[in-house]
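Schema walk-through. Below, the input block comes first and the output block second. Nothing else is stored per chain. Lengths vary across the set, and this one has 340 residues.
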Amino acid sequence: MKDKLDDILKDFQNRVVSISSIQKLEDLKVEFLGKKGALTSVLKNLKNVAPEERGIVGKLANQIKVSINGEIVAKRAEIENNLVNEKIASEWLDVTLNSSKSQLGGIHPISKIQYEIEDIFMSLGFSVLDGPHIETDYYNFEALNIPADHPARDMQDTFYFDNGAILRTHTSAIQVRGMEKIKPPFKVIGPGRVFRVERTDASHEAAFHQLEGMVVGEGINVANLISTMKTLLREIFKKDVEVRLRPGFFPFVEPGFELDISCLICNGKGCSVCKQSGWVELMPCGMVHPNVLKHGGIDTEKYSGFAFGLGMDRLVMMRYKIEDIRHFHSGDLRFSGQFV
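--- output ---
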């Protein structure tokens, strides 16, 4: 029996040397120490050993079991260490090597102009407000004097949710929220992204950026509106810009106007951005409708005001002579990298 145990140990030691995988090592362990393994069979047959030798054989068998387990543990560590070294050798990267020059990030041109405009308005005494992208019908339409049958409510123009909420179609909704919290006199702007169902082209996008402005106080008139707009454009373009006012209908202002600027891309000669007209529609504006002021809890007998909605995408296009509004949402680093 002693000879058999010695043979089992030698057989294990001869075979474990060539093992190179964890799975094969596990198979070898089962073959020798499993329920039907060679060493286990010897232990099960101890009852057939003569009583005077049973203790000696049992002790030797246990010693061999401990030895086999020890060698399995050592072999497992060796295999795992070899696997780690192989992986390190195949995936090694020298981080001290000079890599290609990384690209510097920058502020998107629309954000850049927005911050600049905010600074200009704050220097004129304006406060900056914000509002949610997902709005209610009340703030986006009703409180802005837009009746239920107005074309702006048409599903072709507005993105609706199943619960009746909408993606705001203009930043004018920020006006109403502001009037609920601020008492006149006040001067506020509200920049942000707006959404409309649009056919995209060089000057139209389904998601674009506006900056809403509103001034309310005693004796506010159209002359104050024009003066403010000219000051803004002069600060942005660093020169006087030719503008024109056209009559326009907007339910939230009366009278209402369209403010256009001479196209700075073609210098008024006509291009795809200005649709060959030489003029670019920049913002609707006008005197705040009394109904809107009433929704904001403002006394219309005492106060008046003007409001405007500046199209920031088109303003940025004029500033940097960008010929297509769709570049802003392209995610093309070749485009945005020009403004770092």
